[in-house]
Amino acid sequence: MNQKTATKNQSRHTVNVPVNIELLDFLCMDVSHPIKYTRLQAFSDLLRCQAIATSTGVKTINNFSFQHFSKRWNWHRDTVRKFFAELVKFKVVLIVSEKDNPNKKILVLKTV
């Protein structure tokens, strides 16, 4: 088996690893104040937002918008949209419309 085949086969397996915000902060601390967030930093920020929402008794990130995160992470809106589309494919997040206002989106991080 060559290296390319081995890498391709390894990418098909799922590994569940307990991760907390402190670990993600540690992994992201290569740059103290990034001009542009990495995907790992953006995901860590999402977890932080979820933790804040959960601590106030809310299970979702309300008033979710691609524009909000594009400014926060210094990304283009299309990049944010693609990032969330990938997270949806990985079944990590769910984006739903509010019942009363379909234009407002709610972000739900799937937690265990």
Alpha-carbon distance between the two ends: 36 Å
Instruction: Indicate the low-confidence ranges by residue numbers.
Output: none
**Strand numbers in spatial order across the main sheet:** 1-3-2
Structural class: alpha+beta
Outline type = globular
**SSE string, helices as H and strands as E:** HHHEHHEE
Features:
single chain; Arc Repressor Mutant, subunit A; 112 residues; alpha+beta; 12% strand; 48% helix; 3-stranded antiparallel β-sheet; 5 helices
List the topology elements:
Elements: H1 3-10, H2 21-28, H3 39-55, E1 61-64, H4 66-73, H5 77-89, E2 93-97, E3 105-109
Antiparallel strand pairs: 1-3, 2-3
Structure notes:
This protein is α+β, with helices and mostly antiparallel strands. It has one domain (19-109): Orthogonal Bundle (Arc Repressor Mutant, subunit A), CATH 1.10.10. Helix content is 48%, strand content 12%. The protein has five helices and three strands, in the order H-H-H-E-H-H-E-E. Strands 1-3-2 form a three-stranded antiparallel beta sheet. Helix 4 crosses helix 5 (77-89). It starts with a helix and ends with a strand. The model has no long low-confidence stretch (mean pLDDT 78).
